[in-house]
């Protein structure tokens, strides 16, 4: 994700000195927000021109400096640059970049040199020892990209995704208890309720009415169905709020729901602003940034501003209401609230004073939980259903395991189903929703390698000296043995993949799907539980087969199915015969 965008609050909030406007860009939209007078328009153009010139000059100077003095990274093998301006970045980050990533992993060893903007050198890393150094052992030397940190701060505020160092550790420490196994057990009834409401027991779910009106199989867009389901999961179990009635022919009308659906597409349309996000977030006081943004005649930016305003308003209201419940001493209500945000507020209420979240931080955490939890879970669910449709033998075996159990399982019974666990692990290993991450080197350091590489000059290197400021795209797809590129759930036994001797640093089995170290996915157990509940309910009722060979998966944040460049997953669905 990438663009220059403000967080937007109501005028009532930003007029106060304690408003989140002290930490972000704020804009209040009105019908005349983008009416630009000629003098202001000229001033805006001048500022943009000078700013762009300064930025290009800075990048060009760095490129010349590397050209004259050379780079210690120039000896690393890698694909040739495809563009003087963008290097390999278009191929690396494009929506159809799967083959390019596969080429990097198959044709090169451990670390690959990637050409960035105007000759900038980046390192594409998939060596286990290097990954361990980046994510665990030396993680303080490798921070999130400044662009990612600035973007998430502008979109959501000061939360776990937009902070680093001790501040990030403080956020993580307060949030961790909400995702404990004990609390996940308490959320399980809500997850089953949503799954049964949508797929199993009631007539007005998203699938059942179609199959009752038609005697045989029917083609359905599972992308729409599973995306709506994922949002309701995170709504009910994440924040204690229902976004969607999950009924056929009745699209959600909630403004917040529509905003979540439109957020990522709006961001992608403004990706050209990615390089100037860090700079733009620091120019002048908030009032000046508001003024400058109000001069930009961009319809997409206006839409995005409105989206962020709605999301922030909803999260603010939710946190305010739940905090009032705590402050008014409604112990029974809070005791029976097992959603993530309620548990977070409970944890925050007992934290030391120097650890507690401020209200604006709680709002940021809430927005991040909803956005991140919805998109990644939706991507994973869609991919699993598609994979099962492509592999009917796996689907049949998994259904047989599920049919041998009762309809509603306890937490321990559900997580103990071996083949269900194997199918989910294998899908997430081979097709992670997020395929790569980027880290920036904060100081000169040495990157160790488990497998030595041969440099362009023929020298063997078992470590690489990496200069400060180097960007490091890091693959999340990980090895599964000799048949690593094949879908094979049989490789998994008791959470371990047979034939894999190299230990990865991820928090989820021997893979990097949920990353590792201090910035690993805090809710990865919650996501696993959602996936298992949905599959245990769906496969008991329905059989899935491929409706079209035109389905293509677009690489992104996260990956999504597509037909003719439209977000679709057409799958033939039939009722399981008794």
From TrEMBL:
<keyword id="KW-0408">Iron</keyword>
<dbReference type="GO" id="GO:0004497">
    <property type="term" value="F:monooxygenase activity"/>
</dbReference>
<protein>
    <submittedName>
        <fullName>Cytochrome P450</fullName>
    </submittedName>
</protein>
<dbReference type="GO" id="GO:0005506">
    <property type="term" value="F:iron ion binding"/>
</dbReference>
<keyword id="KW-0472">Membrane</keyword>
<comment type="similarity">
    <text>Belongs to the cytochrome P450 family.</text>
</comment>
<dbReference type="GO" id="GO:0016705">
    <property type="term" value="F:oxidoreductase activity, acting on paired donors, with incorporation or reduction of molecular oxygen"/>
</dbReference>
<keyword id="KW-0479">Metal-binding</keyword>
<dbReference type="GO" id="GO:0016020">
    <property type="term" value="C:membrane"/>
</dbReference>
<dbReference type="InterPro" id="IPR050121">
    <property type="entry name" value="Cytochrome_P450_monoxygenase"/>
</dbReference>
<dbReference type="GO" id="GO:0020037">
    <property type="term" value="F:heme binding"/>
</dbReference>
<dbReference type="InterPro" id="IPR002401">
    <property type="entry name" value="Cyt_P450_E_grp-I"/>
</dbReference>
<keyword id="KW-0503">Monooxygenase</keyword>
<keyword id="KW-0560">Oxidoreductase</keyword>
<dbReference type="InterPro" id="IPR036396">
    <property type="entry name" value="Cyt_P450_sf"/>
</dbReference>
<keyword id="KW-1133">Transmembrane helix</keyword>
<comment type="pathway">
    <text>Secondary metabolite biosynthesis; terpenoid biosynthesis.</text>
</comment>
<keyword id="KW-0812">Transmembrane</keyword>
<dbReference type="InterPro" id="IPR001128">
    <property type="entry name" value="Cyt_P450"/>
</dbReference>
<keyword id="KW-0349">Heme</keyword>
<dbReference type="Pfam" id="PF00067">
    <property type="entry name" value="p450"/>
</dbReference>
<feature type="binding site" description="axial binding residue">
    <location>
        <position position="521"/>
    </location>
    <ligand>
        <name>heme</name>
    </ligand>
</feature>
